[in-house]
Design a protein that fits this description.
By secondary structure, the protein is mainly alpha-helical. It contains three helices and no strands.
Length: 87
């Protein structure tokens, strides 16, 4: 347990930040999953629409420091490639 006032404040801030980051990460995962579901369903227009919504979510997560830049770039690139190859 924290002994100093500053350590107690740090613990509060860390808990709050963790909750916010968890929510942001969940939003990103949901957006990516929607794209993957549309790809699996074979609906190209739905997959493109879902990808359009997932891209800003991933970009926002990078700017907030939840996901690393390379990770988001890789995910977007792979999703985009899978959508493009759909019939």
């Amino acid at each position: 347990m924290a002994q100093h006032k500053s350590a107690e404040k740090r613990a509060r801030q860390t808990k709050k930040r963790t909750d916010v980051n968890r929510a942001r990460r969940s939003t990103v995962r949901s957006a990516v999953k929607k794209v993957e579901t549309a790809i699996a369903g074979g609906d190209k227009s739905a997959a493109q629409a879902a990808l359009k919504l997932a891209q800003p979510e991933l970009d926002k997560s990078v700017s907030k420091g939840v996901v690393k830049k390379g990770t988001a770039s890789r995910k977007l690139s792979r999703l985009n490639a899978r959508v493009k190859t759909m019939a």
